[in-house]
Amino acid sequence: MKKYILGLFIALLAFSLAGCGASGGTSKSETQLDQVKSKGVLTVGTEGTYAPYTYHDSKTNKLVGFDVDVIRAVGKRMGVKVQFKESNWDSLFAGLNAKRFDTIANDVGVTPDREKKYDFSRAYSTSQSVIVTRKSNTKIKALSDLNGVKVAQGLSSNYGEMTKKAGAVIVGQDDMSKALKMVSQGRVEATVNDQGAVLQYFKETKDKNLKIAAIVPSNAADIAFPVLKGSGLDKAFTKQLQAMKKDGTLKKISEKYFGKDISK
């Protein structure tokens, strides 16, 4: 009888442990969206040095910018708090991969290579690329003119990939303002970046050594929020962005930073 009771106890214990294992399996099926809702916090990676998209107000030091305001509005509508973690551009996707961030708000262009690795929300704006040189430079008038030319770019940015394909000699610099200073000082011949960000830099610094030498129409890109594959966050973001487009919120934020509506 004792052996029977002991055997029954062991069987019940094994069944109990199996149940625990099944419960653990259920938690594994929980999506990243579920986790964000459960925590009530959406963690966002951003540079904080890329005006007018993500930067610190010179008077208050508060993190502001077009992308910052857009993701804050998305989070508010989802009913979660938005927490920013600042990092340089070249480490933002590494942070997303390691789940240090749930998404990135940093004028991220949707590219075929990125779509293979990440899911994206609907586009909320578009980006136009420009080539910046010193005013005295008369040789660079198109992307093809960057062949064999020293260009300051972030190594993992779509601008870096584009200029590398054009045959440029890449000098690694992921901070746009520092890259523009390198051009102004004659340390490199050019840099390529977003037109809005470049115009904002010109406005703030009044650097008379620089000019927009050319627009790169082929590199116009949709801007969206990247998330890990299967996270469910892309659909949640898209729902809120569609509502923000419809009710004029995206237009209002866009006009605040650009003086015109660049939302999509």
UniProtKB/TrEMBL annotation:
Alphabetical UniProt keywords: Signal
Domain of life: Bacteria
Domain Solute-binding protein family 3/N-terminal: 41-261
Location in the cell: Cell envelope
InterPro entries given in the database record: SBP_3_CS, Solute-binding_3/MltF_N
Signal peptide range: 1-21
Pfam families associated with the record: SBP_bac_3
Assigned protein family: Belongs to the bacterial solute-binding protein 3 family.
PANTHER family assigned: ABC TRANSPORTER EXTRACELLULAR-BINDING PROTEIN YCKB-RELATED, MEMBRANE-BOUND LYTIC MUREIN TRANSGLYCOSYLASE F
Name of the featured protein: Transporter substrate-binding domain-containing protein
Species in which this protein is naturally found: Sporolactobacillus kofuensis
